[in-house]
Amino acid sequence: MHIGKAYRLSSFLYWTRRDLYLLVILASVPVVMYEVCGWKWAVLPWTVVSLLGTATAFIVGFKNTQTYNRTRDAQAVWTSIATTSNLWGIMCRDYFRDPAIARNLIYRHFAWLTALRYQLRGERVWEVADMQHNAEYQRYYTIHERTCDLDGELAKYISVDERAKLTAVRSKTTQLLAMQSAAVKAAYGAEAVLPAQFIELQRTLNTFFAQQAQSESIKDTPYPRQYSIINTIFVRVFCVLLPFGLLQGFDELNRSTPGLMHGFMVWLLVPFCVIITWMYTSLVQVGESTENPFEGSANDVPITQICRAIEIDLREMLGEKELPPVILPENDIIL
Fold it and tell me: Which of 20-29, 40-49, 93-102, 209-218 has the lowest mean pLDDT?
């Protein structure tokens, strides 16, 4: 997530520069055909192009609204996880007389958070974080889940035996929550917790299951492909046809333009056409980068930072003094 005041224009131009190169070519070719080759018939009625542009604007706006909603929903889920985690820490600390039981439950919760964020950072075929224009931007920040091994991270929180149980299972996160439930049930059987407290602990674990399912749903359900492809097709067609619709309009400017620019006004179509089409392609690229809020892009929900903040808060509840460092942004980007 970018937490600075704004993206610098230079960074945004660098990010979208490949589209700009192509747009310059798409705008220049019709002008050369019209002005140099003398193909005066190579024009389109402006009404046709404007109708296409209007439809394209609606489709692009619809997609960007929906992809923003996906990121907003992901942020809401992880805000809820942070809140429920703090509640879990308070209950574990205050419900159990034995500090060891509370510590084991809280540290196993850290393991669940770690396994969940690693799972969400996994790659999916529809994600775009590793496409060339996005991958080169990754030099400005660090994706922690790609630099540290999951087993090494889990070793900080759970025992060797518990890590061994996770080796053969499909969902480490689900297994960790099942371990939590078994531990709470064992404590209840040993009368280490009251019945009402046991019910509240189990209810909180059910909440964690629901939050995990919500996160997995956002991760594993892409933005509908039919909407994605029609959005891409419309924008590309509009970028190709727009210069042909503007040729006559810019050529007619020669009638009222004296001096050096007389006869050359049609060439102004190139920069103006590039600016207009760049607006459309940039909106597509922005929506695309917002579509998958856990993939590891600069616009992701900062689940690594949220997990670290939860860990610090819960360790302080346990009275620990040696705390992990706060994750700081790199170049105004924090994951």
Answer: 40-49
Taking alpha carbons only, the member of 279, 249, 291, 248 closest to residue 53 is 279
* Amino acid letter, 194: L
Q: Is residue 109 within 8 Å of 180, Cβ to Cβ?
A: yes
Length of the chain: 335
Amino acid at residue number 12: F
Count Cα atoms within 13 angstroms, Cβ side, for 67.
28
Instruction: Provide the 10 A C-beta neighbour count for residue 157.
Output: 21
Helix (H, G, I), strand (E, B) or coil at 44: coil
pTM: 0.88
User: Closest Cα partner for 329 from 61, 82, 5?
Assistant: 5
Tell me the C-alpha distance between 196 and 201, whole Å.
9
Q: How far is Cα 19 from Cα 280, in angstroms, rounded to an integer?
A: 10
pLDDT(247) > 60: yes
271 close to 99: Cβ distance less than 8 angstroms = no
Q: Evaluate if residue 263 carries a pLDDT over 60.
A: no
Output the six-digit token pair for 331.
Answer: 């170049």
**Coil, helix or strand at residue 333:** strand
CB neighbours of residue 17 within 10 Å: 11
Could you count the other beta carbons within 10 Å of the beta carbon of residue 36? 8
Nearest to 30 by CA among 241, 265, 236, 235: 241
In this structure, of 1-15, 16-30, 87-101, 292-306, the range with the lowest mean pLDDT score is 1-15
333 forms beta bridges with 2, 330
In angstroms, the CA 178 to CA 180 distance is 5
CA separation for the pair 193, 23 (Å, rounded) = 67
Residue 308: closest CA among 110, 149, 150, 122 = 110
